[in-house]
Every structure is written in C-alpha cells, then in structure tokens.
Write a structure and sequence with these properties.
This protein is α/β, with parallel strands linked by helices and about 325 residues long. It has eight helices and 13 strands. The strands form two sheets. Strands 1, 2, 3, 4, 5, 6, 8, 9, 11, 12 and 13 form an eleven-stranded mixed beta sheet that branches. The radius of gyration is 19 Å and the shape is globular.
C-alpha cells in the first residue's frame, strides 16, 4: 500500500512507523523514525532490526530454494520453453538458467525446487518450507491475488527473496513488490553489450573474491524508480559501454552510479537483487567474459539469503 503522506497526522505517522518494526525488539522501537518507510509503510533498509527473526528458518535443518520463473509477457531466451504445471516439471535443453541454479544447489549443498505454476505459491505455509524464493526473469503479472498475499506473508515471517534480471519487470502495479525490489522497477535498456562491472562493496558474501572491476555482457537495465536505502553491491561503469546506456524508451542512464546489484531488509524479510543475467551464455558453459564472476556473485547472494552466509554486509 502506498501511503499518502499528506493525509497522515504526526501521531498517525508515528504509529505507522512503529508497527513496521518487529515487536520483539525494544531497541527497534527506538529506531522507528529511521527505519520506517512512509512510501511503502514497512520497515526497510540495511538495518537488521527490520528483520523478523521468529525462528521460522533454521539452516541446520537444511537449505531449500524455490525458483519461480512464470512469464506473462516477453520470455527471456535463458528461460527456454515454458514449463509444465506443478512442481519440478521435466526440463528441456533450453531451460538453461533453471538448470544452472539446480547445478549450483547440487554443488553447494542446498536443495532447489522450481515451478511456473502460480498455484504452488498460493499459501504462505507452503512457502515457509523454503529458506528463500527466487524470482528468475519472471514477467509482468506473474502472481494472482492468493500468491501475492502468500509472498507478502512469507516475507513478513522472515522469508528470503532473490530477484534476478526480469524480476524487475514483474508486478508493475503492486507497490509492495516495488519496495521489495528496493524501490526500483525496470524502465528500459540499451542493446545487449559488453561493459565493466564495478564491485562497490567487497565485504558482502556475494562480492567476496570478486575483482574490483570485471568485464561482462548484459542489457544494463535503466530503472524507475531508482533503488534507495539499500546497500549497493555492484554498478556498471557507463563509460565502458560501446553503444551507450540510453534505453529504448529514452532513459539517459544513471551516470556515475548505475547499480546492478544490491541488498536490503524489507518488511521483516531479506532481499538480494540483481539486474544481471540476460545473456544465455551467462548460464551455460559457452564462453562469455566474466560469466564466472556473475555466477560467483549470484551464488554468494543465494547463500546469504538462505542463511548459509552473513547477509547484506
């Protein structure tokens, strides 16, 4: 729900901010003025007091990731053919991104389920069996009302969210989801082209071991709105893009600070987000400069949201 600040009294705003904080923490209430967000009506930012540590997720019991890639519009080639109904339907050779995440799970000790069936997201109780949910290049209105409610309750219960590439082109008309993305949405992009990623924060689990600058090829999303109150992890150096950053709808780019990955706490949960991952070669063994750094970056983000590594440092 987007809040009209002009209609809120001082007392009403204070109440809103306080209810956004976990009731289990007295210190959280003292920090409410900083932590509350009048645009989205939730607690969000880089302060872990926004997290609801209610004991719903114990890494010692095993780590589980659910990948959701339903498309209701353009379908990225790295997703391949649409999947059948239910959980874990048979994959085809061109479902390369999902196969890559499955392989990461096998190699790194976490279980992966995948689906494009919205009914599999219909209850928060079912989602609570997963330490994190990944939206992998989902498109447009990928959720119905029941799944929207379920995702929101899951996150509020301390659930983890990972948004990859066209997760930013999903659920445009749902303000809560826009906030989950860090106050960001996909607007447009220039041509798929090589560029240089700048590792901004090298303390995070998703950036440890990455070089300060690394070559990669992507669409380099332009964003409206632009992420705020998040921890930016990586940016693209717009000056390295041979075809420029201007998007198909005229967006001029973001200048010196064009984020491509970031993290935040949001409404009780955790969210790790990246606009990267467009090129099919990013997900396969076919050579693409920098793809090993992209996969390392993604894996670190997954681990941090699952609870296998520190989150958003």
């Amino acid at each position: 729900m987007r809040v009209n600040r002009s209609l809120l009294s001082v007392a009403g705003m204070t109440a809103l901010l306080l209810t956004a904080i976990s009731p289990s923490s007295a210190t959280s209430r003292e920090g409410a003025q900083y932590l509350g967000d009048p645009d989205y009506g939730v607690c969000r930012g880089t302060d872990p007091r926004c997290y609801h540590d209610w004991g719903n997720f114990d890494p010692a019991k095993g780590l589980r990731l659910l990948v959701y890639s339903r498309t209701a519009g353009f379908r990225h080639p790295h997703l391949g053919a649409p999947l059948g109904p239910g959980m874990n339907p048979p994959l085809k050779d061109d479902n390369v991104a999902i196969k890559a995440v499955l392989e990461l799970g096998k190699e790194n000790g976490f279980a992966v389920d995948y689906t494009e069936d919205v009914t599999q997201l219909a209850t928060a109780g079912k989602l609570l069996s997963y330490n994190a949910v990944m939206f992998l290049s989902s498109t447009r209105d990928a959720l119905d009302d029941a799944a929207q409610t379920s995702l929101r309750q899951y996150v509020r219960a301390g659930g983890g969210f990972i948004g990859v590439h066209n997760a930013f082109g999903t659920e445009y008309n749902w303000p809560w989801y826009e906030g989950l993305l860090g106050n960001a949405n996909f607007y447009d992009h220039g041509p798929n082209q090589p560029g240089t990623v700048v590792t901004v924060n090298r303390r995070d689990a998703s950036t440890q071991g990455l070089p300060p600058r690394w070559a990669f090829t992507d669409e380099w999303y332009n964003l409206i709105p632009y992420p705020t109150r998040v921890r930016v992890l990586a940016e693209v150096d717009e000056g390295t893009l041979p075809n420029g950053v201007r998007g198909s709808l005229g967006h001029p780019g973001h200048g010196d600070h064009h984020p491509v990955s970031w993290c935040q706490y949001y409404d009780g949960g955790k969210a790790w987000l990246t606009t990267l991952g467009h090129d099919v070669k990013s997900w396969t063994d076919e050579p693409l400069e920098g793809d090993q750094y992209f996969i390392r970056h993604l894996l670190g983000g997954i681990k941090s949201v699952l609870g296998a590594a520190p989150f958003c440092r």
